Amino acid sequence: MTKLTFQEAYSELVKLSKKLSYISSLLSLSGWDERTYMPKDGYKHRAEAHAILGEYLYDEWTKDYVGELIEIAKSGDLDEIQRSNIYWWEKRYKEQKKIPKELLIRHIKTSTLAYHVWKEAREKDNFELFKPYLKEIIEILKEEAQILGYKNEPYDALIDRYEPEMTAQEIANIFNELKSETIRLLNRVKSSKKDFRSYVLKGHFDKEKQKEFCKFLLEKIGFDFNRGRLDETTHPFATRILPNDVRITTRFYEDNISSSIFGTLHEMGHAFYEMGLNEDYFGTPVGESVSLGIHESQSRFWENFIGRSLAFWELFYNDLKKFFPQFENVKLEHFYLAINEIKPSYIRVEADELTYNLHIILRFELERDVINGKLSVDDLRDAWNDKFEKLFGFRPRNDKEGILQDVHWSSEMGYFPTYTLGNLNAAQFFYKINEELGDIYKLVRKGEFKTIYEWLKEKIYQKGSLYKPQELVQNVTGERTNPKYLVKYLENKIEGLLSIE
Ligand code: ZN
């Protein structure tokens, strides 16, 4: 090609990046449709359509021409935004170029198969069915880690996909502290023999009423229905189609009111991040979210730090009673206790704010050993059960409530730690907000959610991927992810809960 100037090369990259983002937005739209309204049997050809579009995007991004553009653009005198965009483009380009297409296809095909086998194995409560597929997935992941390269250990390469530049060792250091503090707090709760009155949440809750109440909350908090919507699904998620089209989903159980409310608030947090990104940079990395650990910090922040606070229900409890008169005879404090019940359980997705992280630490430690070759898949189930018993004090009774409960291992490892990183980052941001805006719960009680949203938007959402995740945490809070904030928050919260009569 004729020699381009670095500015021309950069503009070409922006153009390409935007074009491919628009194309991939339709893939997101189709994915949303698949998980909400698509007729059941539509999945087969839909999967084909997704594979074709996915391959097209991969091919476009891995053309040698893209590499040449990056090389030219890199050589120029760039501003901060350009530098950052090029950093992410180059990172992705190099990684995609390294992984041979056959391996990529083997990964996708094995995942699709493994997903269906996992579902069957879970239903039949039989890990042996799933084991050969898990072995194959782990072989693929290990191969990918070797090809991608890593800082200290193979597992680092997998973590980097979700939490760029984070290492297993740094996570282990953080998690070890969190683990011992969590066990200490859990023992405190256990010895208190507290009755969290979870029975106040039992009863019949009309689905349509739940939907109305969730929409009511979203409106009050400031979710813009001109730029987003709420729908129903089996496994809730949030997705941005385009900057002014961000969709969230939730599920409704008629015998359980909390699932839909907190599920909605969780996905709303993800949506706020996506809605708050800088629209001018749409289609380039600086206009995209930076990592799962930051994304999850936003969902957890709105779900737990705000949604499960006493202040939040001081504001909304009377409204809840209007929708569900059965709460007429339940004291606010008792409702607050019930939605914050701390009760160790087998299942991660049903876990409370405290013990949730133990579920993640367990998975992180096992993944690390498996990927680094210290633990074989044949020993994985026993290792799971032993570790679980050590952390929780009781042993899974079967695979369904043990190693087969999560879908993740049918395709990936390295994803789980980002859930707890999200909790940790949320706590760190929470204390920073308190420092800069004053008592956050004062704002919540007055319904001044906009002030909180604007703070997050300015400090986090608008930055997109301008900084790497830990740089962002450092810029916003003055330090890297530090477990002491989450521990402090949980300790305060638990003492408050235990003091309620
Ligand atoms: Zn989430």
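^ zinc ion complex. The mean pLDDT is 96. The pocket of zinc ion is lined by residues 266, 270, 296, 299 (CB under 6 Å).
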